[in-house]
TrEMBL record:
A GO CC term attached to the entry: nucleus
Keyword list, A-Z: Coiled coil
A single GO BP: mitotic cytokinesis
Parts forming coiled coils: 21-80
Protein source organism: Oxylabes madagascariensis
Keyword DNA-binding: no
UniProt keyword annotation of Acetylation present: no
GO molecular function annotations of the record: GTPase activator activity
Protein name, as recorded: RGAP1 protein
Length: 141
């Protein structure tokens, strides 16, 4: 009877361990599926950040290009004799004020964007976004 009880206790323990193992495998499968979904989201987020950074750099380059063109036009208007004759004194002062304000606004916007870059450097830097798969290899081993 003692041997039968021991066998029954062992059988019940084996059943519990099988159920625990089954639950653990199911949980592992759920967690792996969630991890895979999060990896996909991370990949999309990285791609979106990269696209937005490229758009921003293109827009900033275009802004600088347009500012240079405007500055050259204003300088040309201010320096050319026909420009001074064609423009009244008031128009010249407005143009020079506009040139000063444009340059000042450009400097302020550059300072503002660099302040954002500095404060968000760790969030937006491509080097910080990179994902090292060697850690996965170590964890899965």
């Amino acid at each position: 009877i003692r041997i039968a009880r021991c066998f029954e206790a062992t059988r019940q323990r084996c059943c519990r361990l099988e159920q625990d193992g089954r639950r653990a495998r199911e949980q592992l499968a759920r967690v792996e599926a969630e991890r895979a979904a999060l990896e996909v989201k991370l990949k999309h987020a990285r791609n979106q950040v990269e696209v937005e950074m490229k758009k921003r750099h293109r827009a900033e380059a275009e802004l600088e290009k347009q500012e240079r063109k405007l500055q050259l036009v204003l300088e040309l208007l201010m320096r050319e004799p026909w420009g001074n004759e064609a423009l009244s004194g008031e128009q010249c002062s407005v143009l020079s004020a506009l040139a000063g304000r444009r340059l000042g606004a450009a400097l302020v916007s550059v300072r503002r964007s660099s302040a954002v870059d500095e404060s968000c450097q760790s969030l937006l830097s491509h080097s910080d976004i990179s994902y090292d798969r060697t850690e996965d290899d170590v964890v899965r081993s």
